[in-house]
Amino acid sequence: MPARACGFRAHECDAASPPPWSIKPRDDVVTLLNERQIKILVQVVELFNRTGEPVGSAAVSRAETISVSSATVRNVMAELEGLGLLHQPHTSAGRVPTASGMRLYVDHLVATGAVVTGPHADWLVTLSELEADDVGQMARSAGLLVSQISHLTSLVSTPRLAAARLRDVQLSWLSEHRILVVLITEDGRVFNRVVRMEEAVERNSIERMRNYLSELVVGRSLVEVRRRVRQELAASESRYRSYVRRALSLSQQVLDLATGAELYVEGQLNVLDFGELAHDIARVREVLRTLEDKERVLDVLDRICEARKVQTLIGSELGLDLGDDLSLIACGYYREGEQVGLVGVLGPLRMNYARIIPLVEHTARMLSKELDELS
Question: What's the CATH code, domain 121-160+261-374?
């Protein structure tokens, strides 16, 4: 998957007077926070993640890590609200973290090493079942397991087939005008298409066509093969035997289709359990429609850089116009040192980041290990 610059921290809200709770914390705001403000922000977020309810100052002051009065906590929470990190949904209610506040909280977890823990025993055993003979089956299995463990929606992308090198090509004669083409990549994926030929193909010419295409494609990527086919087609057709012309026509049709990455989405219906969406059927439909648009989701995953660590996109950072109350945790997985896809979990803003981040990271590592063993 081609790497792109990590731009998900740069998304900004529209300049036309956005609500203050939708603005990302500026670097100067972050550096101005003192230890007490950070502790109280962390406590508010963790209480909110646990209950889903606005958090009051009394609940925060009872925490072991907070050694100040409820009145002091109330004042600090008001300061954090002024900085756009907390939001008070109603005048008489407690406060909830904004997307900006959650962004700061997650960065704090990562910076302090709070999520750098050993694998959780309850999901380590489940992930040990991750076995398959090719990257597609492995990605699908990983997505299913991650969704079951997290009770959220998992996203796993595979390498774009255009970049994969081919190990073999097979042709099967179905009729004079229908040929089954099977492409097998070096990482074990299988792509097949039934191609309709305008010019009739005799059964006895299939083997010669296969031999010719095998010499043309084996060991090359689809991008390289497409370039070679176009060059061959651009040459004078008069010099080709009929089976070569048909083989080139056949391969051109297949290559035009076999280029995209695969995206496996598991646990879509878990969206119904997201507290932020549970009472908004229109939002649920919108999220489910977005998940069905796999090219759009792949574009988001493509924006994640190749840094060998987990990345968290919160709210508008997703770039899917789904509001500020969803998050995506994703991590790349590798084959022989090259990133080939990503594992991700889509969930509500209120999720257990300290648990989900290491789950995603460990799954990516396991996929990398299994793929290296397939090599």
Answer: 3.30.450.40
| Domain range summary for the chain, segments of one domain joined by + | 20-111, 121-160+261-374, 162-255
Instruction: Give the burial string for 173-185 (b: 16+ CB within 10 Å, else e).
Output: beeeeebebebbb
Task: Report CA 5 to chain centroid distance, whole Å.
Answer: 16
Backbone angles phi, psi at 199, to 5 degrees: -95, 135
Bridge-partner residues for 344, per DSSP?
155, 330
* Amino acid letter, residue 157: S
Q: Could you tell me how many helices (H) and strands (E) the chain has, helices first?
A: 13, 10
Please check whether the domain covering 162-255 is classified as CATH 3.30.390.60. Answer: yes
Domain covering 20-111, topology = Arc Repressor Mutant, subunit A (1.10.10)
Cα-only R_g, the chain: 26
Going residue by residue through the chain, which has 375 residues, state the pLDDT in tens, using 9 for 90 and above: 333 333 323 232 233 333 333 334 545 455 578 889 999 999 999 999 888 889 999 999 988 888 889 999 999 999 999 999 999 888 777 899 998 999 999 988 888 877 655 556 556 556 566 665 667 778 888 898 899 889 999 999 887 666 677 888 888 889 888 888 888 887 777 777 888 888 888 888 888 888 888 888 788 877 677 777 777 776 645 555 677 777 877 777 776 555 556 789 999 989 888 877 777 888 888 888 888 888 788 877 777 755 568 889 998 888 777 777 889 999 988 877 777 788 999 999 888 898 899 899 888 888 888 777 765
Task: Tell me the pTM.
Answer: 0.69
